[in-house]
Amino acid sequence: MPHVPSAPALGSADLRAICLALPETVEKTAWSMPTFRVAGKMFVTVPEDETSFAVRCPKQEREELVLAEPHKFWVAEHEAFSAWVRVRLAALDDAAELRDILTDSWCQAAPPRLREAHPALCPRPETYGPA
Predict the structure, then answer these.
(1) For residues 49 and 12, what is the distance between their CA atoms, to the nearest angstrom?
(2) Sheet with strand 33-38: strands edge to edge
(3) For range 64-73, the mean pLDDT
(4) What residues contact 69, with CB distance under 8 A and at least 6 apart?
(5) What region does 33 belong to: left with phi over 0, alpha with psi -120 to 50, or beta?
(6) Is the pLDDT reported for residue 127 higher than 80?
(7) Above pLDDT 90, what percent of the chain?
(8) What is each CA distance from 49 to 12, 32, 52, 98, in whole angstroms?
(9) Which residues are registered as beta bridge partners of 34?
């Protein structure tokens, strides 16, 4: 059987490139770690080891994600009462999955004017609520 090379592992550089490609996104250091913000609202944090990241996620969806794919998603103890979920970079299938997760978090943080200006990025307006 021929050897099929696996896709290169995703890293923080991939995450950073995807985040900064989203409209009006800036990177800002907070708590000694990179964070990404849209219109001043955080939508991604990257802890020191850069093997995982946290994104906005409605609590009801978060519970479903963690139960369905605990190898990918978990909730940090200090985020148990907030609407954030942690994601293991190495567990993601590919860059498309990473992009979908980051874009969904961006949509949750972005103000309505940006979501309306970029409907292809935010196809589920009823789930984002006010930013």
Answers:
(1) 10
(2) 25-30, 33-38, 41-45, 52-56, 84-88, 73-74
(3) 95
(4) 91
(5) beta
(6) no
(7) 70
(8) 10, 12, 8, 18
(9) 29
Q: Given the structure tokens 């939508």, which residue do they identify?
A: 43
Could you tell me what percent of the chain has a pLDDT over 70? 89
Q: What is the mean pLDDT of residues 91-95?
A: 94
């369905």: which residue's tokens?
A: 68
Number of Cβ within a 10 Å radius of residue 27: 13
* Tokens 């890293």 sit on residue: 11
- Give dist(CA 84, CA 74) in Å, integer: 9
- The residue type at 25: T
For residue 112 the two structure tokens come to 């309505």
Q: What is the pairing mode between strands 84-88 and 41-45?
A: unpaired
pTM confidence score:
0.89
pLDDT of residue 8: 62
CA distance 122 to 120: 6
